[in-house]
Each structure stands twice: as C-alpha cells, then as structure tokens.
Amino acid sequence: MLAWMIYAVLVAVALSGAALLAEKAARYRRISTRWPWMVAIAASSLLPIAMATISIPRFETFSSAAPAAASASGPFILRDTTSIPLASTVIDWSGTRTYTSSVRINRFLADIWLASSFTLMLFLGSSTALFHRRKRGWTPGTVCGAPVLVSESVGPAVVGLIRSRIVVPAWMLKESSERQRYVMAHEQSHLNARDPLLVAVAMVLLVSMPWNPLLWWQFHRLRCAIEVDCDARVLGGGGDVGEYCETLIQVGQGQSGYVGAVTAMSESKSFLERRIRIMLSKPGKWAGALAFALISVALGMAVFAAQVTPPEAPGPSVNHAATIDPALLDAYTGSYALSDYSLVTVARKGSGLTIEPIGQFVAQGTIDVSALSDAEFSVPSIDVTLEFIKSADGQVRSVTVREHGRVVMKAPRVDPPTAEQIRAGLAARVKDQKPFPDSEKVLHQILSHADTGGVARLGPVESYRFEGVTDYGWDIYDVQYQHGAQQVFIQLGKDGSLTNSVIRRQ
C-alpha cells in the first residue's frame, strides 16, 4: 500500500507538470484552460488504480489450418505495458521493505484512506446542509431581467448542482446597471459552461483520494482556470476590459461569504491580480510557436506518467489452509532460531498459521502466512517462503527460509528456554546500545567488498560513525563518502561471524 501510494504521488507530479504546461499553451492560444486540469485530476485519480489492477482477458485464437487447436493466451495486464520502473529505480526500497510489506502498516494506511475520504464527505455534507439552511433566508429577485436569489453577504456566485441558481449579495442591487450587467454576464457564463457540474465531478475524484496533496493543488488550479475561462468568455462577448476589471475589484472588496465548493466571482486578492494581468496581456509574436512547444512537452510528460511502472502487487495467495490437517499445523508451532539474536515464532490462528519474527530487518510484527502446500507457506507482500523440514522420525526439526526462490537461511527448532535466551539477548543489546565486538572489523570488510558499481561513484570513504543498535538488534553505522552517504546495518553471531547486513543509501 505504501509503495503504491508513493507511486500514485509520482504519477500525479508528472501529470501536474503536464497540465501546467498545457494551461500555459492554452493561454497563448486563447482557448479554454480548465480542461488540462480536469484531465490531470481524473488521470491522477484513476491511472494509478488502473495500472495496478486492470487485466483484460484475451480471446482464444484459432488456426485456419487446425480449427480444433486453440491457443489460449493469458490476460492482457495493463501494468505490463509500462516501461519506466521509476519507483524501483529512484527510491531505495531496501530500507523501507519492512514498512512497504507490513500487513499492519498497510491496514493502517487503508484505515487512514477511508477515514480521510469519510471526513471529507462529512465536511461536504455539512457544507451542503449549511448552504440549504442559509438558502431558506434568501429572497427571489431580478437583476438585468434575470431571476436571482438575493442574500445578505453571499455571492455573486452560482449555487446548486441540479437546479443551479445565481445568488447575489444585497449590496449588488445598489450598483450601477453596467456593474450589474458584468456580474450577471460572468455568472451566466458559469451556468452556460456547466461549471458547477465540473467542480462537482472534480470534488468526487478528490474524495476518492484525499491523501494525495497533488490532487488538492490540481483542484485549486482547476478552480482558478474556471474563473480565467469565464473572464475570457465575458470579454469575448464584447465586454470592456477596463470596466470589467473595475467590477472584479469592486466584487473583491465585498468578499463573498463561504458557501462551500461553488463557482464564485470573488476569489483571493492575489488571484484577482493575476486574473487582471492575464486579461490585460497581449499574445506575443511567437505565441503560436511557444504554445506548440509547450503542448509537445506536456504530451511527453503525460506519456511519461502513463509509462511509470507501478510497484508489483503481491500475487494471489494460494491458500489451502482449510485442506491441511489441524494436527499438522499444530506440529509446526514453536520457535525457530534465525541467528543468535533473532528467531521466528510460529503459532496457530484458526485454520492457518502466523509468524512473529524478532531481530529481523525485513519483517516485524505478527504476520499471517498463506499455505502453498502441506509443508510450505508464503509471507504476503514479500517474496519469502517458509518450508518446514521433518527428520527421519517425522518430527519437525527446522524451517528453510527462501527469498526470491533462493535459500537464505535454515533455522533449527529450539525449545522454550533457548527461545527465551535469544529474546533476552536481543533485549539486552537494544538496551545497552553497544556494538558487536567485531562489528567495526566486519564493517571494513563490507565496505571493501562494496567498492563497485553505484558505491564506487560515491568516492572514497571519508569517515564512519556508530549510530547505535536498532530495535531489532542490528548495529547501524553512518558512512560518509566524498560524494554522499550510506547507512550500513550489521547483524553478527556470538562467535563474531556475519549473519546479515544491509546497505541503504541516504
């Protein structure tokens, strides 16, 4: 979940840049500027979900030479059409695997997602209820021959989605007929362009992914573009730019009361200044060429966003726990020593098993595992399997741990006193915050063997410093190079041998 959310933000960044360039190009060409932002909002919301989840079944193909022989191919997976593994290339996932694969963190993020969407819906519902309550106090009126609602302070604005109406503040009735005409032309332009519906659709998309800050920025730019387009339509209908700008300033001084997500003539003073500068600007000599260049780059950025590869989702778990003999599951429960300071505890949970590793960099907490066979189980979200090994007498003696299909360790089964000694030793390491006796020596060996590839580009080592012992009992060193820094995590056995190590770029 965390990796996918970061991927969604990266896609939104690219689409936001594309929309910004497309908006500038549209402004040079004097055409509508709101659609690039509407497309960006829709794509930022739907593209990451589609790329990560959609697969289309293929139809079987038949050979004319042998009609009975059908060649059935697998489904067409949208994710496989991408070619830019940006998330895995730019982000060093080695230090975040614990978080990106944690079932507990994924559930927490899902809860945050649902809670934020619900909170935003509740806020919009409350704003709607408040709007209808205030609307009952508004009185019907007429401005420039058009029916309006007259309020004490709300407006000028277009309110309502199904039956949109123009609302104006009472002070507007005292303005000159010329000012009233421009106000009504502006709000009627919103009605004709169905801007309230456009804002509502964008708000629905925003509710679907409220945790993405780029969506909020895109929504703000959409609201601004809607007003800019409305200004252009009013002036394109024969309005005088000087009189119209004075009307905008007058309306801005009588700032509208808040009534929720509506299309209002009054906006912030800084945006009002920008609108006036846009209206007063003249297209330059090279406006057409600049617009072509900008739209070309914008299309390139949009294609780039569509080609970013989403993080690989865990494959469907093949869970045959219901077919496994409960007595066999009970035989697997117990503790298995991964090292002198780490172990995994296997326990029953209903018709399945859970594991609880301690002293491990990759996995923490209690994790449900899925049965692949009577003796092999998979750990969700990370490509790790556990195979329980029996001795000649039929007793479970060890568990083999494989990562990406490769055996990384064989953990013998230990009795409860031994398991408790491992837990106590780990707790003592974390409490004392002292490095392993041979930790610095092993660090030199790791750095000497890592002086290739990407590490070599960092230059020579200038210094290193012991940072402490992590909560899972590994020594952590901060290594400073000539052109960068790294963190090195080290786990040793009691005999000083290297059990495991992880290098993470900073």
Describe, in plain words, how this protein is organized in 3D.
The protein has 506 residues and is α+β, with helices and mostly antiparallel strands. The chain has 15 helices and 21 strands. The protein has helices spanning 2-28, 34-53, 86-90, 97-100, 103-135, 177-192, 195-208, 213-236, 241-253, 269-280, 287-307, 326-332, 416-432, 439-449, 453-456, and strands spanning 55-56, 61-62, 70-71, 76-77, 139-143, 146-151, 157-159, 165-169, 263-264, 334-339, 342-349, 352-358, 367-371, 376-379, 384-390, 396-403, 406-414, 461-469, 475-481, 484-492, 498-505. It has an eight-stranded antiparallel barrel. The radius of gyration is 32 Å and the shape is elongated. 29% of the residues are buried.
Top keywords for this entry?
single chain, 506 residues, alpha+beta, 8-stranded antiparallel beta barrel, 5-stranded mixed sheet, 15 helices, 21 strands, elongated
Short description:
The chain has helices spanning 2-28, 34-53, 86-90, 97-100, 103-135, 177-192, 195-208, 213-236, 241-253, 269-280, 287-307, 326-332, 416-432, 439-449, 453-456; strands at 55-56, 61-62, 70-71, 76-77, 139-143, 146-151, 157-159, 165-169, 263-264, 334-339, 342-349, 352-358, 367-371, 376-379, 384-390, 396-403, 406-414, 461-469, 475-481, 484-492, 498-505.
